[in-house]
Design a protein that fits this description.
- The chain contains 6 helices and 11 strands.
- The protein has 267 residues and is of the alpha+beta class.
- It folds into 2 domains: 20-106, 2-Layer Sandwich (GTP Cyclohydrolase I, domain 2); 115-267, Roll (Urate Oxidase).
- The strands form 2 sheets. Strands 1, 4, 5, 6, 7, 8, 9, 10 and 11 form a 9-stranded antiparallel beta sheet that branches. It has a two-stranded antiparallel sheet with strand order 2-3.
- The longest helix is centred in the first third of the chain and has 15 residues, at 81-95.
Length: 267
């Protein structure tokens, strides 16, 4: 029977000496202290981290990856997602050297808003995605957000003498660029919301409802309009890099939904 010291460990050579491009852990749930437009919060994020592994080692030390995530969550000194992701990658490098590293954070951010007429305070939640890849001589970041609002159908408005069906709609925006880009999730949220027929709110009083309906009727849009307007808005913000926009309308009079996508490289 083999002695304990004879068992294979991660640092021993594998039988097949093939380089691994990406190995790591997924779905680690950690709280992160974030500030969004002055609002401090500690949402739970699902974190995934990956590194490469050369062909001379049998495996990675998975505990070092999760330790790095917990360490940054506990001693966190940053309040922006990109900075946090970079800290995680640096912490991993101290414990487990790599050539290529990657962090993905998925969670929800809250934003403090005011209703359009009554000025009531309301908290709105937004799904947020961040992916940071780091390698020798390079670093790449992808930011993604999803906003929810409403659309009003231009076609039904034109054929019914001023009546129209409306629906809840989502707009998802992903931007892949260099790490030096100043773009923030908050900016993407604001840009995407400006492209809807109207934004939606958790808290609404009657004057606010009137204002939103009026805005929808004065700003009817197809899903195609949402996608095009969003790309146009990103260009106005001088966003650079690979952009993916996906609009989806949850149709109210059809038994199906409508979607529209644009993928572009903005320079």
């Amino acid at each position: 029977m083999s002695q304990m010291g004879e068992y294979a460990t991660q640092d021993q050579p594998p039988i097949v000496r093939e380089e691994i491009d990406r190995v790591g852990v997924e779905g680690v749930q950690i709280p992160l202290r974030i500030i969004v437009n002055g609002l401090e919060q500690t949402p739970i994020f699902r974190a995934s981290v990956y590194i490469d592994l050369d062909g001379s080692k049998k495996g990675v030390h998975m505990s070092r990856l999760t330790e790095s995530l917990v360490a940054i969550a506990l001693k966190q000194e940053r309040h922006h997602l990109t900075d946090i992701a970079m800290d995680i990658l640096e912490e991993i490098e101290k414990k487990h050297p790599y050539t290529k590293g990657e962090v993905i954070l998925r969670g929800r951010l809250a934003a403090l808003k005011e209703t359009p007429v009554s000025g009531r305070k309301t908290l709105e939640s937004y799904p947020v995605y961040l992916r940071v890849k780091r390698w020798n001589g390079g670093c790449q970041r992808t930011i993604g957000v999803t906003v929810t609002g409403s659309t009003l159908c231009p076609h039904s408005l034109s054929v019914t003498g001023g009546k129209a069906h409306s629906q809840r709609a989502t707009l998802t925006v992903l931007v892949r660029s260099g790490i030096e880009s100043p773009l923030t999730p908050e900016q993407l949220i604001e840009a995407a919301e400006s492209c809807l027929s109207s934004v939606s709110f958790t808290v609404l009083k009657t004057p606010d409802e009137v204002s939103i309906v009026d805005r929808m009727y004065s700003n009817p849009k197809f899903v195609e309009d949402l996608a095009r307007d969003c790309v146009s808005r990103l260009k106005q913000l001088n966003v650079k890099g690979l952009v993916k926009v996906r609009a989806k309308a949850y149709e109210s009079i059809h038994r199906h939904d409508a979607v529209s996508e644009i993928v572009r490289v903005l320079r």
